[in-house]
Amino acid sequence: MIPYDKRSGKIWYNSELVDWADANIHILNHGLHYASCVFEGERVYDGSIFKLEEHTARLFYSAKRMGMKVPYSEAEINDACNQIIAVQKVENGYVRPTIWRGSEMMAISAQQTKIHVAIATWEWGSYFDPKLKIDGITLNISSWRRPAPNTIPWDTKASGLYMICTLSKHEAESQGYTDSLMLDHEGNIAEATGANIFFKDKNSEIHTPIPDSFLDGITRRTVIEIAKSKNIKVHERKINPSELSNFEGCFLTGTAAEVTPVSCIAENQFKVCDLIIDLNKSYQILVRKKKAA
Description:
single chain, alpha+beta, D-amino Acid Aminotransferase, Chain A, domain 1, D-amino Acid Aminotransferase, Chain A, domain 2, nine-stranded mixed beta sheet, 16 strands, 28% helix
């Protein structure tokens, strides 16, 4: 794999197309030292960004919650995202818009820092190994928990919130698992390190945690809409880890993960059932529908 700082092409950087190798920041920028940074992850399917407007709206919401005034409009960022995938000729890949505070101040206060915006894109296949997308990934249960909602801006896609996700992912991989299930501050099931989670019960109904301390994913909402269109009953509720043995199936959803089945969480085993396979097929049809039309 080519390191991300060694790739070629252009990155949209503060309204200019900059050579990939020159899209740099100073080591003393506030975003790096104090996590003054928000971002989005978007998928490109057949040359089109899926739900671009929703992602950009969430990016601006995250920035506002972090006290950062974006020096561009949502329409300008949408145009920039479409421009950079055209310049880079990305047909099926990923888009990463990022907003951060600059280097004008180096202290907790950052009132006078400049707000920067950059958008990078690259060809990217499956987030998980394609074989695992068929057989199901494995999860441990993280020793880290999602913080209480009154301690962080939990409904944003802010960089600082992902620190414990990296720690959890590394912990899982060291134990031979693919990813990690994270509990919330009350000990209920929350999400995986970068994706929302769903369960199928014996009656072919779906259960998923209420997103009251973690991000309500755009893919999560999309899959719920797909399930309801198929007359599948969806329960959004608190789910205790003691209930894991009651479920037959499990899957993750996310822009990167898409719809990914789970074969086990710790000692709890799950089947890659027809319902999950069907939801994945319907999702894949939907994300490519715009181009096909």
